[in-house]
Amino acid sequence: MVGPAIVTEKRVAATSPSKDELIAFIQSVILNEQQEEMGPFYVLDLGVVRSLLDTWTFNLPMVQPFYAVKCNPDPAFLKEMAALGTGFDCASRAEIQTILSLGVSPDRIVFANTCKPESHVKYAAKVGVNLTTFDSVCELEKIKKWHPKCALLMRIKVPETSGAAFLFGSKFGALPEEIVPLLQAAQAAELKVVGVSFHIGSRAINYHAFEEAILAAKTTFETAAQLGLPKMHILNIGGGFTSGPKFTEAASAVKVALKKYFPTGPTTGLKLMAEPGRFFANEPFTLATSILGKRIRNEIKEYWINDGMSGSMNYLKYDHDDVICTPLANFGNNDVITCKGLETSDSTVFGPTCDPADTVLEVYPLPDLQVNDWLVFHNMGAYTSSRGNDFNGFKTSAIPTYLANSDKIS
């Protein structure tokens, strides 16, 4: 749910998520709202979204991104991605409906879920979403029955060597010994297998895994040709990308592997796709939370904030990125200032619920803060609001998003 949007006409330079211009915008939101007890809110910087797409296009111009909607389905964010011309990776009827409601053509959607409810398959057929993934005979039977004209990508399990925080091989992807039987089953059902998809895992650290995965895809292409299937022409390299220097490393590994295993590229009519989520969603979002309470115990300062592990911080249960947090002191009377230069001490930050596991930060350096001061969390777009719930009546779904517009300068 997106709350009231404030769109600034000023195009500010944001060389990093914690630059003064972004903090100034957050300060302006706090002061403009003039609420006695203001809830948490997001800031979505649309300029950062555009910059990330420029980065993608510069590094991987041959690969069309299909943004993974599940990562963050914020309507304003999706609208910007649609306007920029990206495709979309949808995994359910609801996600497809959301993207189509933006005026996006169904040919910009891949139904990237290898096991879909029959009603969702029928809906895809009805609205013209004609590209999906599979990795089982059962799925082929559903598609044959309800969407026989749909083009198929075989999702394959690839070697799990990426060091990713989240690996998908236990749930998704045909095993090497299953590839021939599945291709034969598709051939017998007169279904069109047009390509291969894979995913090396989310938050990968070893991008040489792309070479092994692309080799496995190449082998699958060759196997299909040997079985007499029509020539495959789509390769979907999945996700696993993050922004920053790691993306450059990943893009380089992809290009080296493509040159090695698909050397003639576009001249063969090969279409290259990817399904990035975190790469586009994480950096543009910033979360501002206010302090609800304070306690000092054994010389440790403990703070309660109005969002936590059941809400936007849910990702901390699974992701262990370094938290980037900026404290702001609220003195009222149009005065909200940063705490730069103040002495800090190791502190604990709790979320607002009655769950004892609702601990957001431990041994984290913070200055001496008070109730109604603020903690601003950066890089908060990936699997945050989308995975939060409304436990204890603290509604993640009601957190508003304010829009900023910056030019990101590297």
CATH class of the largest domain: Alpha Beta
Biggest sheet: strands, sense, closure?
9 strands, mixed
Helix content: 25-40%
Write down the CATH topology of the largest domain. TIM Barrel
Helix vs. strand class: alpha/beta
Low-confidence runs (pLDDT<50, min 5 residues)? 1-18
Report the portion of residues in β strands.
15-25%
CATH superfamily of the largest domain: Alanine racemase
The CA-CA distance between the termini, in Å, is 32 Å
Query: How many DSSP helices?
Result: 10
| Overall radius of gyration | 23 Å
What number of structural domains do the residues give?
Answer: 2
**E-strand count:** 19
Shape: elongated
Whole-number average pLDDT? 87
Using the 3D structure, state the CATH architecture of the largest domain.
Answer: Alpha-Beta Barrel
Order of helices and strands: EHEHEHEHEHEHEHEHEHEHEEEEEEEEE
